[in-house]
Design brief:
single chain, 241 residues, alpha+beta, Porin, 3 helices, 18% helix, elongated, disordered N terminus
Length: 241
């Protein structure tokens, strides 16, 4: 009876032994094939934020009125007939601004008059005859320029073409009347600033050169032919859009 029980016990021990030895290598193999974690990739710095681009200024339209005083180049002529070679004028115009960045174009018309007295030049001296007459000058200018500064206040400079109509009218002597037109150019520079949402005030200096050829009879006597001058004007502008 004991011999018959010993045989199964021996067989069980022999079967368990090889099975336990077979499981140990599996544990080592499983440990050897565990994947190793890769080192983390270096983080890249975030790109610096780009500054927003300043949009170009919007196009606009201004209308303006102007009052100006001009010291005339033909000083001898106008000083002789009027005691003061100064023309005071009034007018206005339109300005289209910000065509390309701060580029603007302008069209303006101004007119002025001088009360004068006819006379003769004798040996280089003016001798008045006592006959009064009126001198008129109407000036049309077209040109452009560039603004420097902000929308609320800015400096500017420009240049363009000038067309000046010169007239002389004498009461009772229509044969003495003169009406001539002459071309030239101008240059200007100024400063303006906003005083209300759509209203601007500006101060500007200018120079005009207008070649009158031989000029009027009196200008020829004084050997002068430039109907231009230099001066200043004040502008009151309203921005339409």
């Amino acid at each position: 009876m004991r011999a018959s029980l010993a045989i199964p016990v021996v067989l069980a021990v022999l079967a368990v032994g090889p099975a336990a030895q077979a499981q140990q290598p599996v544990t080592h193999v499983a440990a050897s094939v565990v994947p190793q974690t890769k080192p983390a990739a270096p983080q890249t710095k975030p790109a610096a934020p780009q500054k927003p681009k300043t949009p170009p200024p919007r196009r606009g339209l201004r209308v303006f009125g102007a009052a100006e005083i001009e010291y005339l180049t033909a000083t001898d002529t106008f000083d002789a007939v009027s005691d003061l070679p100064v023309l005071i004028g009034y007018g206005g115009g339109v300005e289209l601004e910000n065509l390309i960045r701060r580029l603007f174009v302008r069209l303006s018309i101004t007119a002025g008059a001088i009360n004068a007295e006819h006379g003769l030049v004798v040996d280089g001296s003016f001798v008045p005859t006592g006959v009064p007459f009126d001198i008129g000058m109407r000036t049309v200018e077209f040109g452009g320029g560039w603004r420097f500064g902000r929308a609320t206040k800015s400096f500017y400079a420009g240049a363009g073409l000038t067309l000046r109509k010169f007239t002389e009218k004498t009461d009772g002597f229509p044969e003495e009347d003169v009406a001539e037109s002459h071309n030239g150019y101008y240059a200007n520079a100024g400063f303006d600033f906003r005083v209300a949402p759509k209203f601007f005030v500006g101060l500007e200096g200018f120079y005009r050169k207008v070649d009158a050829g031989e000029g009027t009879a009196l200008m020829r006597d004084f050997n002068e032919s430039d109907l231009g001058g230099a001066g200043a004007r004040i502008l009151f502008a309203f921005k339409v859009k």
